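In this section we turn from sequence analysis to structure. A common task in structural bioinformatics is to predict how a protein folds when a small molecule is present, because the ligand can shape the pocket around it. The inputs are simple: the amino acid sequence and a SMILES string for the ligand, here pyridoxal-5'-phosphate. Study the lines below before reading on.
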Amino acid sequence: MTTIASALQAVRSRIALAATAAGRPVASIQLLAVSKTFPADAVRQAYTAGQRAFGESYVQEAVGKVEVLNDLPLRWHFIGPIQSNKTRPIAENFAWVHSLDRARIADRLSAGRPSNLPDLQVCLQVNVSGESSKSGVAPEDLPALARHVRTLPRLKLRGLMAIPEPTDDPVKQRLAFVHLRQILEQLNAAGFHLDTLSMGMSDDFEAAIAEGATIVRVGSAIFGEREKA
Ligand SMILES: *Cc1c(COP(=O)(O)O)cnc(C)c1O
């Protein structure tokens, strides 16, 4: 077995344990393998080990991999910051976007989504850490953004995403995830039908699963440490 295959197996076991501990079906949690900075060959190895959904953060790098790997039935998720001049390649190459946080970007993704593709599945990125994070819509501005996105053709609003401030303190990890889940519940109480909570990474996905994560975004625990940019 390759290193990537055995790492994937270990991550799947951790997910299963966390799901069981939380009294949730394992199938309610989707593993997104975050392959940013890793070559197409690493994605291919993960595919061979059964992985289908991959997350990327940098448009140019991602589109290169999408093209090289177009012989495989992969589902690509965009999880990085979105510049307005990069919305078209995102709309054309990805099945999901997790990092939508502005109406103007939503408009451009909607306009750029080819009509022969299924609707682009989107999560709104919420800033649950206050000042310290530059990305994500503030919780108080979220309902207006969600209402706007709901009106746009070719986008399907699925849920929320957050990247909480990194911390080793499991109590603090869990509080950020509780916060995101509560925000989702408030939106659903207000008439949305959101089914996706994209939260949890290599170091904290157990806490995220305990609080209801339906997609965990795991990079280094599968592919190894990334070079520091
Ligand atoms: C890089 C990245 C991840 C994966 O982080 P790891 O700690 O390597 O698991 C998850 N989500 C986002 C948005 C990322 O940019």
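Residues 34, 36, 57, 79-80, 163, 201-203, 217-221 surround pyridoxal-5'-phosphate (CB under 6 Å). As an exercise, try to locate the residues that line the pyridoxal-5'-phosphate site and compare them with your own expectations.
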